[in-house]
């Protein structure tokens, strides 16, 4: 019984430390370079193009304001590596949704972490904590 109490106290103590250390730090990474890498290695098939807000407009909007919110294991990974991986998951979801709806682009993309919209014409935002990295994007699927 005493051993169980000691184990519980230890787990609670370390859990509290992990919570304090798990605060997300925001990172900005080059969006075009990340997309180009994902297309080059076959993660994305290239049939759907991705454009940050302010870089391309026009076409017929099929669905407006779609949101994807992806997380990945970031433990013992650099922010750049974990964020690149989780961005790919978000873009795959957008690619699949666009193709299923006859669209060939996702435009007006903005970072949307915790529902806070951040616009950039060059970068996306990624939150990286001790154990988890996350990317949230909002955009419109479009047929050009």
TrEMBL record:
Keyword Signal: yes
Signal peptide: 1-22
Alphabetized InterPro entries for the sequence: UPF0145_dom_sf
UniProt keyword annotations, A-Z: Signal
The keyword Signal appears for this protein: yes
Protein name listed in UniProt: Excinuclease
């Amino acid at each position: 019984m005493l051993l169980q109490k000691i184990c519980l106290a230890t787990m609670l103590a370390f859990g509290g430390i992990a919570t304090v250390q798990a605060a997300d730090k925001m990172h900005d990474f080059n969006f075009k370079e990340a997309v180009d890498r994902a297309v080059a290695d076959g993660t994305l098939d290239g049939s759907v193009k991705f454009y940050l807000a302010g870089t391309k407009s026009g076409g017929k909007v099929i669905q407006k304001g779609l949101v994807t919110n992806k997380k990945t294991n970031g433990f013992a990974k650099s922010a750049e590596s974990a964020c690149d991986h989780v961005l790919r998951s978000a873009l795959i979801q957008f690619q699949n949704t666009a193709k299923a709806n006859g669209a060939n682009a996702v435009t007006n993309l903005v970072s949307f972490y915790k529902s806070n919209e951040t616009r950039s014409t060059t970068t996306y935002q990624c939150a990286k904590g001790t154990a988890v990295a996350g990317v949230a994007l909002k955009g419109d699927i479009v047929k050009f």
